[in-house]
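Final report, results section. Input specification for complex C-07:
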Amino acid sequence: MFQFTSEQYRLKVGLAEMLKGGVIMDVTNAEQARIAEDAGASAVMALERVPSDIRKDGGVARMANIGIIEKIMATVNIPVMAKARIGHFMEARILEALGVDYIDESEVLTPADEEHHIDKTDFKVPFVCGARNLGEALRRIAEGAAMIRTKGEAGSGNIVEAVRHIRTIVKEMKQLTVLGKEELVHQAKTLQSPLELVEWVAQNGKLPTPNFSAGGIATPADAALVMQLGAEAVFVGSGIFKSSDPKARAEAIVKAAKNFNNPEALLEASRSLGEAMPGLDVSKIPESELMQTRGW
Amino acid sequence: MKRVGVLSLQGDFAAHGAAVERAGGEPVFVRQREQLGGIDGLIIPGGESTTMLKLLHYEGLMEPLAEFGRHKPIFGTCAGAILMATKVCSPEQESLGLVDIAVERNAYGRQIDSRVTEIEPDPEFEKRTAPGKLEAVFIRAPIIRDAGKGSKVLARYKGDPVLLEAGRHLVATFHPELTGDSRVHALFLEKL
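Structure output:
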């Protein structure tokens, strides 16, 4: 059983603590990374195409070109994250050797393994993973993830799935807090998660890692909504660089994450933003094209 | 009970709030200028210093914080220490200039070079709190390259100051809020 009190694990969760209240922005080149940092992003996620383009282009989506990630790392001083395919531990090893600050084992890329996620305890670099519900979150934590984010539906510009996922995780955690010991054993079975982690959540009412939100955030109001529902920071993928004025939108979402509790400040942040990215009705996306159902 | 503000723009403010409680203080999560009036001291947490600087400007908090620091104690950890310094390098960056130190950002390297280590505090730190080594959690930490004459080094790591007292202020390049040891926060509470 993995030790979530070990020094290595505390360092991994420690960096996630430092990112709370912030906005992690998807960028595809050094110029976008500079815009993100200047707008106040707390980290950037380096990838080859933003999720809405991956969705449009189809084909296999892989780890980003190393040259692009290197340029981004050389350009900004904030942490740089990068995505590896689910189960592709060699992409992850390469990203670790490159020295990225966090790896996202991400459903946005095409999965490399349809049964196994990466054994993340074996890495020095920390991992973030997506989840739709508490069971999925705890399985990823058991594998060594040091940060959980909702999956939402990446590249859709539609917040409905991220809302569903954060509400589900928060509700399932609340339910555990009122159960007795023998009921927790049963819940561990239902959630398909280790009992030790289920008991930890029952005692503390939260995840042992920070709990962020991703997948469909396109406006300052979207960011504030998921934070009101319990997310501690947000990832914005296509929402910034697929909008008509990325710089203004990036700054506005940074302000919204800090002011998620303050409607007057959110109103101010929502003024003169230009056009948001185009959105998709998630119910119209064919089952086979959903990203959130990747991973298990 | 001492009311300790924790600047909650971005970063590990929640961990600091819990550490203040463990040390016997009452945390106040400060997001607006008006809240500075009702607190005895302020903690600037770890996080990303560039993000915090942006938000300090957006919220018109630069001057109010500098003014607060001219009268009341501030404790900065990691990014907080960077914001309190008089000089920041790699890259050069604006700061509040409250503590006469020169700080180099990300001086140990990237996350892969982050570390947890035990350090021997100065005997004066132990005398003012309790004896025992300090567990120091460094996360993409800065290094204090130069410290003014008026400051007192309370702990070092590999020769560089990592916990430093300068008049009413306190700075740490590591994260005492991420350990169970509340002595550094208790020391700050003593200064209020």
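Chain B touches chain A at residues 8-15, 31, 46-48, 50-51, 54-55, 58-59, 78-79, 91, 105-106, 109-112, 114-116, 137, 139-140, 175, 178 (CB under 8 Å). Chain B has a mean pLDDT of 97. This concludes the modelling results for the funded period.
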